Amino acid sequence: MRIGTFAKELVSTARQLATPGKGILAADESLTTLGNRFSKINLENTYENREAYRSMLFTTPSLSNYISGAIQFDETLKNKTPEGELLQNILKKSNIIPGIKVDKGLSLLSNDETLTTGLDGLEDRVKYYYSQGCRFAKWRGVIKISNKTPSTLAIEENANSLAKYAYICQSNGLVPIVEPEVLAEGDHDIDTCAEVSTIVYSAVINALHKHSVLFEGILLKPNMIAPGIKSQKKASFQEIAQKTLETLNRTIPPAVPGIMFLSGGQSEEDASCNLNEINQINKGKGPWVLSFSYGRALQASSLKAWHGKNIKAGQEALLHRVKMNSLATLAKYQKENGNGESLHVSNYSY
């Protein structure tokens, strides 16, 4: 098995990323997505502004106290600080493991369902990213819940793509973050989300087995189990935590070192509260480190505070959010009654 060449390194990297009390900063937004966010603060979507924003994030003092890894977009590998140092080197010096998004986005499969593209040429890209210092990768598979979806085709095709991606990454030294996201779109209740997520996660794990992926050398990035965004049946933090843990315990092998939840459009506070409740209920039970790989739920306040020029304010806002989520991984977070603004974006893509 080709993975054997990198087995020890993969396991070591996965464990470092899943360090208790730390999480992952997902800063892998595409040019279009970052442009949409810049438009909300009336900032032009230029290379210089994107570079300045990423520099603000990655040079935040003490960031490594709470962040173990950072997922980047391809362009970020070329970005530098105002002093001319590559951001990639800034991460390494801070003991933050550099990661990279390797998929190419979503394509239509059938019936408004999608399949993630990017397997063509993936091995060469992974080898290049490894040579540039990246040590983990991310690939997002998307599943929708509706009266007609998800179809068996969508579940199986996305599971197989995630497994192929994972094997290619491990064969060339990158820890794959496996991200099966059951979208929050729709009016379904929490039980439906749990039912669909159980089927999806099981299909993904089965596909990973078939492709001989090393489970000790991956991380899972799933959705939390919650009602659809338009559901009339809301759920408490405790209900979401209980259903999430129940679903994971039924589907995910103990060999997986870390489960790094996606925020899925939750408000900054809700993402922290739900993570805290999950760890509160699971405290002392194991088997995984239960942490975060958030994008919007870490960056929203920071982006507003930065506003294109205020580096200190942006960094203070980011540091606050990563610290709050670090506390949540240890079941020590206290609700702040602050920013409960939903960050949901319909049919989100990056």
TrEMBL record:
Similarity comment: family membership: Belongs to the class I fructose-bisphosphate aldolase family.
EC number: 4.1.2.13
Example of a GO MF term: fructose-bisphosphate aldolase activity
Membrane-spanning ranges: none
UniProt pathway annotation: Carbohydrate degradation; glycolysis; D-glyceraldehyde 3-phosphate and glycerone phosphate from D-glucose: step 4/4
Residues in coiled coil: none
Name of this chain's protein: Fructose-bisphosphate aldolase
CDD domains, per the entry: FBP_aldolase_I_a
Signal peptide boundaries: none
GO biological process, one term: glycolytic process
Classification via PROSITE patterns: ALDOLASE_CLASS_I
Keyword set, alphabetical order: Glycolysis, Lyase, Schiff base
PANTHER family noted in UniProt: FRUCTOSE-BISPHOSPHATE ALDOLASE
Origin: domain of life: Eukaryota
First-tier enzyme category under EC: lyase
Reaction catalyzed: beta-D-fructose 1,6-bisphosphate = D-glyceraldehyde 3-phosphate + dihydroxyacetone phosphate
